[in-house]
């Protein structure tokens, strides 16, 4: 697989050299005075045939432009025409941003529809810097999965999209009922999945219907976001209201019996177009490839934007999700042998119950003081709850000569979580001297959360996993006390960042953040002698300072080199034998790489070396194994390569490869040193490519496909045995025009037997067998 990828890279470089570098490219983004993206704005080079229109995010690209001086013109109904003088050089890319004022003599409403959900490849992101910037100028590894790419893949769950991000391994979390990934070898918990820049900690699968794009920033993100997993963060950007009226209705179904109608519509609610809306709604029902794991889901996400003036706007978004799906920990391995059973085999019961609810409200208030300063004030509130009563794996019986039986338990559990956060940020864009440009942000974040859980459990029966007999006995009515606790956390953070451009060639990214983290844990304990409960309260406080330094230099034409160093932190909950609270675990990232644009910047290549060390890891105290000490260290080192772009007209590609060597480097147990991380493949890669007809009667017809490939992965922390490597192939045929869109996707074409991931030897999730998924939709 790696040899094939190198062949593709070599081919692209040969093509790049063979084709004379006589053309340039202009790209950018157009927003209103209220900083909202403008769809359907015409962007053209005056006096030429070169031109295009902006997509839903206000982005545009004009390609294959001969060198010379031009006048770039942006026009739109109801907006003042703006002109910029630009100089295009051979083999270069110019980035031009427009702020388009509204016209005092706006015309009547024009209904605009589009057959595309933005560009296949998005060149501009905001996660790494908290402000929009071309990814090619940011000295850190960031990958974006666009809405258009998600539509072609028919993404239903978040991991469907994440399979095409380099260095990401699928993970199973919380009994296979939420989104968990491993990035660059490190498990990325729910603490490192964000929505519109806010932490989005929930214990169920996030809905994808209202996602506009997914940004994955590699490495610790503490410099801007506080608590961070070492491997990276995932930031989901949601669809926003638009002044243009549109409706999109579609129906998706698959061969497992699942169907999923969805609607997306929006527009302006008043003649002045100062009040806009967007509404996404989904209903999902049907079976999955796993026995006893049916799904029923209802989701609705309204969003409104109100423009108080040409300088001030407020956007309010909400999400309401009800999701019924029983938890599922997969299958087991006994004595290092994974049970050879169908991918559908369940250790649960037909009447297992899981009820999940998620509620979210966000608002974002923006005010522009002048051409230099602007202010953002935003808040986020989420509430989630989970109720589950399930029969699931409990333990392996002793002395089972057949290696075929498991002891099951009944667990009755309820938990809920509340999160509130507010961010206040001041932005400044200015110059000091003729050659130095600044983009600066100063911010303050306050966040609080509460997680409450209780559960009771009892042994139920013994199940033969090769010949299961379900519902063999009545469920116990009296369960044993399991646990009952409540965690309250507070986070206070202040941060500053300056993104400097020196003579357009050298980019310097400087930033730092200081955090205060506080925890109050209240745990109920049971006195078995008196059968009474008592509450025990413990507190913990940690502080952290995390800087970042990044440099990027444009060597020549499209080729840039970059490097960065950043620190991150995570609270380490617990106490030493002496009663002292743990310090936060720390992470250090060293990264260096290249970014290059080929074929007049139509194809982007990124390659990066990374080294991430996590210190202050709690490990077993050699003096008393009932306690821990913070002397552990783990390290992940590797290489990543990505190719994204339009190789020829209509042919789009996302190709990735990663090598990850993740191991324990310090531990109190000598036998642990050198062991690989659970669930991490040394070699992994992916390819997704589509070709779409650009002209003629069948314009909009496309075909495509690709693969995801992973090497073997340790099943548990002891690396006692491994999940086998695999390569899964997928394919698609689709049609997309101004009014209709349809697609048929074939997943796991060769019906390969594989495993998505594991939490332990007794929680291994089989991958889905071959399946068909289809979508048909209409736009008005």
From TrEMBL:
Domain TonB-dependent receptor-like beta-barrel stretches: 306-749
Transmembrane found in the keyword field: yes
Keywords, alphabetical: Cell outer membrane, Ion transport, Iron, Iron transport, Membrane, Receptor, Signal, TonB box, Transmembrane, Transmembrane beta strand, Transport
InterPro entries registered for this protein in UniProt: Beta-barrel_TonB, Beta-barrel_TonB_sf, Carb-bd-like_fold, Plug_dom, Plug_dom_sf, TonB-dep_rcpt-like, TonB_sidphr_rcpt
Domain TonB-dependent receptor plug: 135-232
Topology within the bilayer: Multi-pass membrane protein
Keyword flag Transport: yes
Gene3D superfamilies cross-referenced by the UniProt entry: Carboxypeptidase-like, regulatory domain, TonB-dependent receptor, beta-barrel domain, TonB-dependent receptor, plug domain
Short name of one Pfam family: TonB_dep_Rec_b-barrel
Location within or outside the cell: Cell outer membrane
Family, per entry: Belongs to the TonB-dependent receptor family.
Name of protein: TonB-dependent receptor
Organism: Pontibacter populi
